[in-house]
Structure formats: structure tokens, C-alpha cells
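The instructor's notes for this session suggest beginning with a concrete chain rather than abstract definitions. Hand out the sequence below and ask the class to guess, before any prediction is shown, which regions might be ordered.
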Amino acid sequence: MQDGACNLPEGWLAKCMTVNHGAPLLYISPTRIGDAVLATSVLSALAARVNATEIDVIAGSLVAPLYEALPRLRHLHVIDKRTFSRHWLMMWQRAIAHRYAAVVDMRASALAYALCTRKRYIFRGSTAGISKHQQFANWLGDSSLPYPECWTNAQDEHTAQALCAEQRFFALAPMANWPPKEWPLERFTSLARALLSQHPDHRIMLICAPHERARMQPLIDALADSQPLILSDAAYHLRIIYACLKRADLFIGNDSGLMHMAAAAGTATLGLFGPTPMDVYGAVGSYARSLRATDGTLEAIHVDEVLREGLALMKARHLAV
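After discussion, reveal the predicted structure:
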């Protein structure tokens, strides 16, 4: 965190120096879903710290839907990548006309230094062995940093309510953006059957991106007799999925953005980790836990262990509400 001024035409510097608490905040989002969800803790904390009246967000198209229902959102600028980094020039042209109480840059870009603001918060975290949430807390000097959260609107909630129809769900997310991060699909099948055997009043909710549907199809086919709710259509954007996750009793999935969304939703969440650093990217929340085999391979995590840990988390959450 540091103060600073920028080199602008005459007149702009004077305006920059008159920025007070209560002015808008500019937030530059991470590019990946999981990182974007985790960093909502920073957005919430700093919007309160500078008493931002409104919030402008710069985000890539993948994560932009996460911010469309953000309270006090004024402008959502979606980055459309251009050659020679011309997209950053376009973002600068959109933002330069505004005066900000603070610029929060979770991508450590040059843009944060080219805008008028009294405060710049630029995150460059890479501390090994410390969770992202703790890195954020250390960076901001905030020991009470809130847990991540996402935001929905009334239409998102209405759609989720219609999809879930007052039923009870176990949510499973068997896909990831890298095959070594994926627990074997046949174990998800065995897990789903074991969950339904112990809780026949529940249904399975299967979640993946549209391009992952073909790889998840064997699991869909194996569970066809139980009529799982399948959320893989492009129409089910991130906010609708988040609203559905809020209605699930338990989420179990690989290290992914969906895992972080489930934890942010307050759902009992169990993340399965293999080669990726669980201590850095583990699920964050009151009823969020992560599981990793001692040898660091997903193949070494057994169904019985996942079932036991998941149901214990679900029970703990139910006892607390």
C-alpha cells in the first residue's frame, strides 16, 4: 500500500489532490474465478475502509458476472484482450476521467500508477505456505478481514429457487482446469451413490462449465436413475450457480473456482487437493475444509474418507444454524 500522484495534464493533479473519503473506489479484479472469489474479502474491506460511495470494477470476461450484482456498483468495465496490451490503454481511457478515493489492483498492473487517487493498494502476494486470505489480511493489516462473498440479484435467486424447488442437494464439481487436479470420476460416482444411500431425501447437483460437459458425461450417465440437477448450460452463469450453491447442504469438489464459490456461499465445503498447494488455495469459510492425501496425489484420497469428512462438515453446519 502506498500513496502517490500521477503525471497528468495541468488541472488533473489538483483534482487528484482533492479526492476525499466517500469518493468512488476502482477495483481491478484477478483473472481467475477462484482468485476473484478469494479477493472479494479485499474488495469488501477496502470499500468500507475508504467509505466508497460507488465502486468501479475492471474485470476479464470470465469473472465479470461475479460483479454484476455488486452493491454500489457504478461501472463494470470488461477487459476485451487486444494485441500489444491495447486493452489496458482502453481501460485507462475509461478510468482517467474519474477521481477515486482508492485504486485497488489485484493484478499489479501498470494501470494503477496511471490514475489519480490518494491511495493505491497493489497486491503482489506470493508468500509460500500462507493462505491467500491470510496474505490479504497481512497486506492490509486487518486481522478481522471478512470471509469471501459473492453477490446475486432477485432474478438470480428466483432462477435458483425454481431450479432447486425446495429440495435438498449434495453439490459435486468433478472438473478442474488441469487434469492432475481432478479426483477420479469413478470415485465421484461412488461418492454420490454413498451420499444418496445415507440420505435418500437428497438429490445430486452436478456443476461444470459448458466445455467440460462431455468429460462429465460418464458421471451423469451413471447417476441418471437418481435424476441429478445438472448445471452445465451457458445460461447458468456464475451468479445463478452461486445462488444454487447457497441452497445445497454440502459441496465436494476439486481445487477450483467452484470450490471457493461454495465456501463463500456458506455451504459446508470440502475441497480435494492433489499437486496444488492446499495451504495457499484451500477453501476459506466457517464450514470450509480441504483434504489432501499424504503423498499429494488425488488418487490416494479414498471415497470413505471423503464421505466421512463431508458428512461431518454438513452436520457441524446444521448444528450451528
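Then share the key points. The first strand starts at residue 2 and ends at 3. Residues 303-320 form the longest helix (18 residues).
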